[in-house]
């Protein structure tokens, strides 16, 4: 019984092998006879690629001015609508000027009074400088000296006469008395002249001091008038620039400038031109330097780099900008360098605070290869393309990609011109397998037209480029 069971199992196993063998042969035969899968291939196009740096920027006004009070008072008028465009020197606010008009009148009256005091002081100085008293004392001194000389001569003659017994001694004694009297007269005249001269100096010095004080009072009063004028002028606040005004910070009737506090009234920003601030990585800065050293950095003659701006809606702004500032240092915390581009804003559409993409043309890569972006595959080994050779055999080719845009991408390394690249049917193509290629004609941009492309730049910063 056991032997029968074994024989029966062996027979069944053999029958199963025959069935499996027959099925496997059928599949192998079917594989040998199946046609090669159809794939679409295309040849790379060769064009000059213009490489752009692309950065995220934020707009700001080149000049923003806060309108603040310079004098205290109650706000009388607001002469604009919030958010409107204003011209330079437009009247914006007016503070009640009454108290400052009164102050100006008082200061003007004080000035007139001090000017009158100056005239009085000048007249007194002129009087003090009168030398008539000195001249009289000088004449008296001359007269006294003459009398002394005459007395001395008379004494000498009388002495000679007495010695010759020609005159009495009483006459000699009289001559001696007159000579002593004349000496006293000279001394008195000298003292009187010295006193007159001293009085003159004192009188002139006092008059000059009074005149100087009066002149200083005029200067002080003049300054007070000027300050009163300024205070009156400061009751009117004008826009210092052409731009757009923001919200009012105060209302009519409010007390502003209290306790010398410069109350903020409103803010005006210059909006034409507009500045766009953006940053680049330190790595990109060195890349720019390398392009400049190799004389590949694109310049517009002697002007700044060609700068364009992409708005939030994707449109290219219709005015070119120029880079007018590069920061002196790299931010140590972020490793980035701040830059600024200036753009015209004649219609005042752009506003401070808007975000935009700044695009800077850096250089051109001649004879770059571009393929359909759909031809690029990616796996753990990196990016690759599938190339079909002359025997219709598929080859996996690692590549280094560059700029891409509108379905095209630059192949920087790993592909040659004229090679057929699989652009459709990558999932049906296998490396080393046969395929049936169908040619797809890629239309290159016409001469004079350009195709823009974008590529991730160093440290993740985006770049753009265009093909010509």
Strand content: 25-35%
The whole-angstrom Rg is 54 Å
Number of domains: 3
CATH homologous superfamily title of the largest domain? Efflux pump adaptor protein, beta barrel domain
Main sheet record:
10 strands, antiparallel
Number of helices: 5
Task: Estimate the mean pLDDT confidence.
Answer: 81
Strand segment tally: 24
CATH level-two architecture of the largest domain: Beta Barrel
Report on the structure:
The chain contains 5 helices and 24 strands. The protein is α+β, with helices and mostly antiparallel strands. The protein has 3 domains: 40-59 and 273-467, Elongation Factor Tu (Ef-tu), domain 3, CATH 2.40.30; 64-96 and 236-269, RNA polymerase II/Efflux pump adaptor protein, barrel-sandwich hybrid domain (OB fold (Dihydrolipoamide Acetyltransferase, E2P), Beta Barrel), CATH 2.40.50; 99-233, Helix Hairpins. The strands form 4 sheets. Strands 2, 11, 12, 13, 14, 15, 19, 20, 23 and 24 form a 10-stranded antiparallel sheet that branches. Strands 1, 16, 17, 18, 21 and 22 form a 6-stranded mixed sheet that branches. The chain has a 4-stranded antiparallel sheet with strand order 3-10-8-5, with no helix packed on it. Helix 2 (98-128) packs antiparallel against helix 4 and helix 3 packs antiparallel against helix 4 (169-233). The longest helix has 65 residues, at 169-233. The two termini are 90 Å apart.
């Amino acid at each position: 019984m056991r032997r029968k069971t074994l024989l029966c199992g062996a027979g069944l196993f053999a029958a199963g092998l025959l069935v499996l063998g027959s099925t496997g042969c059928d599949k192998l035969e079917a594989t040998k006879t199946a046609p090669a899968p159809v794939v679409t291939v295309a040849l790379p196009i060769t064009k000059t690629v213009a490489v752009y740096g692309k950065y995220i920027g934020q707009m700001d006004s080149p000049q923003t001015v806060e309108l603040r009070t310079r004098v205290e008072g109650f706000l009388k008028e607001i002469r604009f609508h919030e958010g409107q465009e204003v011209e330079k020197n437009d009247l914006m606010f007016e503070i009640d000027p009454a108290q400052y008009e009164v102050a100006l009148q008082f200061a003007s009256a004080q000035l007139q009074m001090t000017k009158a005091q100056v005239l009085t002081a000048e007249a007194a100085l002129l009087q003090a400088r009168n030398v008539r008293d000195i001249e009289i004392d000088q004449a008296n001194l001359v007269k006294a000296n003459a009398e002394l000389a005459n007395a001395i001569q008379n004494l000498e003659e009388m002495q000679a006469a007495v010695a010759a017994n020609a005159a009495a001694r009483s006459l000699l004694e009289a001559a001696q008395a007159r000579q002593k009297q004349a000496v006293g007269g000279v001394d008195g005249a000298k003292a009187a002249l010295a006193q007159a001269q001293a009085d003159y100096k004192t009188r002139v010095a006092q008059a000059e001091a009074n005149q100087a004080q009066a002149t200083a009072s005029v200067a002080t009063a003049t300054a007070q008038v000027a300050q009163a004028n300024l205070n009156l002028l400061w009751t009117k606040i004008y826009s210092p620039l052409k731009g757009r005004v923001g919200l009012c910070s105060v209302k009519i009737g409010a007390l502003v400038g209290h306790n010398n506090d410069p109350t903020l009234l409103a803010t005006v920003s210059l909006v034409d031109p507009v500045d766009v601030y953006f940053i680049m990585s330190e790595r990109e800065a060195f890349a720019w330097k390398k392009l400049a050293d190799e004389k590949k950095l694109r310049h517009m003659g002697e002007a700044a780099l060609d700068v364009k701006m992409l708005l939030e809606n994707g449109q290219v702004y219709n005015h070119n900008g120029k880079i007018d500032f590069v920061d002196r240092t790299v931010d140590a915390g972020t490793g980035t360098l701040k830059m600024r581009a200036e753009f015209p804003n004649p219609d005042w559409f752009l506003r401070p605070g808007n975000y935009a993409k700044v695009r800077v043309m850096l250089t051109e890569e001649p004879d770059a290869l571009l393929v359909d972006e759909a031809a690029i595959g990616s796996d753990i080994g990196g990016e690759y393309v599938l190339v079909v050779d002359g025997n219709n055999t598929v080859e996996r080719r690692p590549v280094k990609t560059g700029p891409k845009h509108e379905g095209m991408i630059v192949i920087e390394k790993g592909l040659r011109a004229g090679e057929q690249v699989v652009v459709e049917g990558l999932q049906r193509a296998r490396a080393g397998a046969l395929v049936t290629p169908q040619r797809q004609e890629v239309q290159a941009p016409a001469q004079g037209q350009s195709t823009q492309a974008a590529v991730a730049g160093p440290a993740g910063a985006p770049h753009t480029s265009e093909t010509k």
